[in-house]
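README: folding subset

This subset contains proteins for which both the sequence and a predicted C-alpha cell string are available. Records are stored as plain text. Below is the entry for N5-carboxyaminoimidazole ribonucleotide synthase (449 residues), shown exactly as it appears on disk.
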Amino acid sequence: MTTANAYPVTQTIRTIGILGGGQLGMMLAEAAMPLGYQCVFLEDNADCPASLYGRVFHSEQLEAFIAAADVFTLEFENTPTATVKQLTDLSKAGDKHGMFPPLIALDIAQDRLKEKQMFNALDIATVPFREVSSEAELQQACHELGLPIVLKTSRGGYDGKGQFVIKQDSNIKTAWQDLKDAVSGKGSLTPTPAPLIAEGFINFSREVSIIAVRGQNGQVRCYDLVENHHHHGILAKTQAPAVGTSHLFQQATNAITTIMNHLGYVGVMALELFVTKDERGNDVLLANEIAPRVHNSGHWSIEGAITSQFENHIRAIVDLPLGDTDNVHPAIMINVLGQYPDISAVLNIDGAHYHSYHKGERDDRKIAHITLMPNDVADLDPALAKLVAVLPNKVGLDKKSSPVDNKSAAVDAPTNTETKAEKTLDTDVLAEDRQTDSAVNATVNKAKK
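--- output ---
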C-alpha cells in the first residue's frame, strides 16, 4: 500500500523516526497517525510494541532508518548521546528537520550530578548534595550533610544498583570500595568516568510530578501536578490531578518552564518533585529528576486531558501548534505489572480504559496500564477498589497503608519505595526490557565511524 498522495503538498515532514520501540514509541505512533504522520523505529527487537504501527529497523540498519525519516525523537533518556549528536548534525546541515529533545537535555539527564547542579544554578531547590571523587571527599560529605546519606554513581546504575546507603561512620569505607570504580570508569555500572554524588536525607509528605511541552517557538504548556505511588521502586499509581496541590502548581510550572527554556527544549518533559516543608512550615517542592521524554506519570492524559502528552509531543517536534493541556476529568492511572488481568473484568468497571502493550508476561514488567475515569468523581476510589480486586499483581494497592507512606526517607535509597527516580526513573522501559533497546546502544559504534 502506498500513501504517496496522502499528504498535503505543503507538508514537508511525513515520517517520524523514533529511537526505541517500546510502549512509549507505540503510544507516540498512535498519537501521530490521526495527525497524518507515519513512524519508523530503531529497535533490535522486531516484535517490540511499536512494531504494530510502523517499520522497525535493526541497529545494523541505522543508515536506512535515517533515510526513512524526516524528523527524529526518542522514547528513552539513556539513548547514547553519540547517536543523538549524529542526528542533530544532520539537521543542522539541513538534511533533516530536527532531533528532539536536544542533545544537552540527554547529557544532563544522564548525569545526576550535572542535573542537580543545573537545578541549583537555576534557583530550583533540591536535596543537599556533594560531589565525591575520593574517600576523603566522602568523609567530608558525610560530615557536612550528616548521616544517613545516599552515595550514588552520577551516571549509570538502575534498580538500586550503583547506590549505597551510609547509615553510620563504619559504612563509609565499605561504600567507597563498593562504588569507587565508577569514578575511573571501571566496573560494570558505567564506562564513563564520573564523580559520585552524595545526597542527604529529607522528610517529605509525597512525590508529585509535572509534565510540560515546549514548542519550537518557545511556547510552554503544562499539565496538572499529579501524585505518584510506587511498588518495589516501580510506578504503581498516578492520581491526576494531585489533590490539594493547587498552591504548589505555580512553583512547579515555574521550575519546569525555566528548565525547558534553559535547555532550548522541544517536546514533552517530566519533572519529578518531592513535597516537603520549609523552615516556616510551608509546603515547598524539591526537584528530583527530569525525564526528557513522554512519561509514565502522564499516561492518564490520553483520556484525561484535552490533548494527551503523546499528541503534544508529536505536535512539538513537527512544529504544529500545541494543544490544550487542561484536565477534562479527574483520573487514576494504574500500571499493570507482570501478568495480564481479565480484560472483561476490567472493562466491567465504569470509566475504565485499558491499554495493552502487547508484551509477554514477566515479573514486574510493565505490560499495560489502566486509566479510571468514572463520570462521578466520588466513584474514583470505589472504582479503584474494584480494579485492584481483579488485578493479578495488586502492586501494593491492596494494603491498608500505602508502601509510599513512609514520611522520612533517603531520596532514592534502594530500601524505600519512594526511590523510583534512581532505581528506574520510572523509565517505562524497565531494566529487564532494556534488551529490547539494544539498538540505540549498538548505534554508538556506528555513530563514531
